[in-house]
């Protein structure tokens, strides 16, 4: 049995020797009447006769780890938690459920209850009570909840909490956790130094090296153990790994946040999470940093929070890595997130932490343009890549995430990117900055900041804007650049039906200096292609266009055979119409759209002039307004 190899005498002796008074104990000793001997944790061991007598009295044999504990110390004083004293063998007794908790737990059982929940419901009447002094709490060994080694689970029930009890798989597991809590409570004391703390601090240093070498899983195991003992910086370093590996732990990095060397890396990540979860209303004067900081760090944190809220925060580390980050942002800004990641990945070995306790360039996660580039798969690649000048094997690169061309628009949409309707415009040889002049709304502000990652269940504004005539249709497009040098604007959720009687393709105005292509598609409720429009212009003149509705095709100008819908769709099943038309357009012009940048809200936006013209004399225009009153 595993428990037989555990040396209780050695474990308890080390605990007793390491014990130093906490603040309450020191105060009691200062007031007099209490000595170190009075505060001893251990008791003389119980003989085999004493243990056997207690077992006979209770009519059971104790589980192995508890039996061996009694043989090393007949009782124990705990100075942490709500259990103060574990009784001697002659003091323990059956709990007997004096508060009649069993019925309420049994009534809560359903057909979906887990085995553990069923065991807990029956625990109260069969448990063995170990404590003799506590804060309305009970240490209960359950003979009905056992493992293959014959160990009984131990439950700690806090009668004042109103919560289910804490479960430990064995008495040994409980005592080890209490030993860790004892260490954690004294970890900040400069006088608390012993063989255990020295060994743990050596493991933290090893974890630091392992993490920077890319062996982050080994580092995580070492830091997890050190964190249980409260070793300085272990918690903050572990949270860094958790942020990248699992997307959790954003809300605090322990005492590391108080170090001004780490402000620019850790605080932006906390601020972004704070705002993303709408916590700003709970803390109107800022957000909780989780540790005491000086005025300088607090002021910097407030400034960073404001930048993140405004979308103006830019991750800007120093040195070669900082230069690579700037290059990556320039690529991602216009949609090439794959190139941006390749740039960051190549520069990771040159990244150097501003202090010894920073394990990775976390600040990039808060950058509104670069943060979405670092997907979970890429974050794991980052963790596995040696950095800070270290050597080690380089992980296989994560494949590029953007599919080529346009056919991905025909794929099943994500819940927060409904591509059942979309309209796009490309201008050949133009820079994205030129689009506001070519098709921006009159008096508009030009390109605006990226909208950021979408989180609402239906994230698009489908309402009529103030100041717009009912017939107007001004698209809000995300603006970027394709690999082949076309500037594009894409509206992933148009508010109106495409290419109606009042539609005027913006391709003509946008083609002042070169070719322009407009594409507009809408699916039916059943998922089939309802409407597909394509128009092409060059140097201010429309060249050709077509609008496909079902099997009807409206044309203007000589449509090339390579993109003519009759030829493209000949012999093609209805389910593949959209994909085949998109493939023909992408091949004809070399067009593409960056899926990740569009879905994650990386690209700046532009409000265009209306894609509809005003009704002429004698033309009727009808519209319906629906108001939802809550």
List the total number of helices: 20
Structure summary, number of beta strands: 16
- Average predicted local confidence, pLDDT: 89
Approximately how much beta-strand content do the residues carry?
15-25%
Largest sheet: 8 strands, antiparallel
Label the structural class. alpha+beta
Q: What ranges have pLDDT less than 50 throughout 5 or more consecutive residues?
A: 455-464
Shape: elongated
Task: Name the helicity range.
Answer: 25-40%
Task: Tell me the radius of gyration.
Answer: 34 Å
Q: Largest beta sheet: what is the strand line-up?
A: 15-14-13-12-9-11-10-16
Report the span from N to C terminus: 64 Å
Considering the chains and any ligands shown, give keywords for the structure.
about 625 residues, alpha+beta, eight-stranded antiparallel sheet, about 15% strand
